[in-house]
Write a structure and sequence with these properties.
about 350 residues, mainly alpha, A middle domain of Talin 1, two-stranded antiparallel ribbon
Length: about 350
């Protein structure tokens, strides 16, 4: 491994982020011109755009025979989306969560995580299972868009149906095309650099996918959600994360399994540790989102703290660190129970306030 490998990795990250930015800008404006609400734009167009790096990296790595990198990228990105991105975004500004997200999209996100765990029980994700997941994504997008168009009266002025001038439509199309081209190039460089580093250090491609690649391909979601939170566009900030998690499993992993030469293997470590952590992060959204339909700064800090803990766990497990057992015991017997008690108290306080108002 040489210095050029690191340059390749960093350049791949940069090109991925730039390509995702172009894709999101062009696609989001086109969606707004079609009369789709900001929340639905966040749940669909922006989510798909910011999930495009994961799609490009996963498909490319599967074709190169690095299927573990594809799975690790999706699982790690979903964990990053909730713990890191929602956490950091809420630290910037408390996030208001739309009731639609709590009632519909969060249960769908939890359902997709459960679906992936069920399909992984046999040790791999087969091609037909990938096509099944992708078909579910098509149904979800069609249902979401149709539902949004029926609720035109509730849309914000920014996304009202309008006739877009031809030059602006051409510019939006060019942005989308340039973004897709940059995503393809960036993913190729990123996968090449990540595989070289994994081989040099003797680290499995699954671990590299869960950490370096997952964080790198989640940077577009982080930038989008944090910026949206700062600008007060909090529907997009939360919708982007929830929608991206749905897209990562149904579209990214679904398409990857559909085009991969062989089934995507699911290691026992992922089945016993990483997939349950991803599901737990999704489940943690329900009590937090239900307490006043907002993510407070302290809840964002809680998410971010668990992201640091998960990253430390993954690194220590890879290095076979002697303090690994002590770290796990502290998490299992102290921090996790304390978190559960805190969330239950928050739920009780929210329920009590609701009873007093009634």
């Amino acid at each position: 491994m040489d210095f050029l490998t690191f340059i390749l990795l960093l350049a791949g990250f940069a090109i991925l982020i730039g390509g995702a930015e172009l894709l999101v800008r062009g696609a989001a404006q086109l969606a707004c011109d079609m009369g789709i609400s900001p929340l639905v734009v966040g749940l669909t167009v922006v989510s798909f755009g910011t999930s495009a790096p994961e799609l490009a990296v996963s498909v490319c790595s599967a074709w190169k025979g690095q299927a573990g990198l594809a799975l690790g990228n999706v699982v790690g990105s979903n964990i990053c989306n909730i713990l890191l991105i929602l956490g950091v975004s809420a630290l910037f500004a408390p996030l208001v969560v739309a009731r639609q997200v709590v009632r519909l999209e969060v249960p769908i996100m939890i359902g997709t995580a459960l679906l992936l765990m069920l399909l992984s029980l046999n040790g791999g994700v087969e091609r037909w299972e990938g096509l099944l997941m992708f078909s579910c994504a098509v149904v979800y997008v069609a249902w979401t868009v149709v539902r949004s168009r029926r609720e035109n009266s509730r849309q914000s002025p920014q996304c009202a149906l309008s006739a877009s001038p031809r030059p602006r439509r051409l510019w939006q199309t060019l942005q989308i095309a340039a973004g897709l081209a940059m995503l393809g190039l960036g993913s190729r460089w990123l996968v090449g650099g990540a595989v070289s580093i994994a081989t040099f250090f003797g680290v499995s491609d699954m671990v590299i996918g869960l950490t370096v690649v997952a964080i790198g391909t989640s940077l577009p979601e982080l930038a989008t959600s944090a910026l949206a939170a700062l600008r007060g566009q909090r529907d997009i900030a939360v919708g982007n994360v929830v929608g991206s998690n749905i897209f990562n499993i149904l579209v990214v992993l679904g398409l990857t399994a559909g085009v991969a030469p062989n089934a995507i293997p699911v290691p026992q470590q992922a089945l016993m540790v990483d997939l349950p952590i991803m599901l737990a992060a999704c489940l943690a959204c329900l009590p937090i989102f239900l307490t006043g339909h907002r993510i407070a700064r302290w809840e964002g800090g809680l998410f971010f703290g668990y992201f640091i803990a998960y990253t430390l766990f993954t690194v220590m497990d890879t290095m076979h660190h002697p303090k690994m057992g002590l770290f796990v015991q502290a998490m299992v017997f102290f921090f996790i129970p304390l978190t559960i008690i805190t969330l239950l108290l928050s739920l009780w306080r929210a329920w009590h306030r609701r009873q007093l108002r009634n």
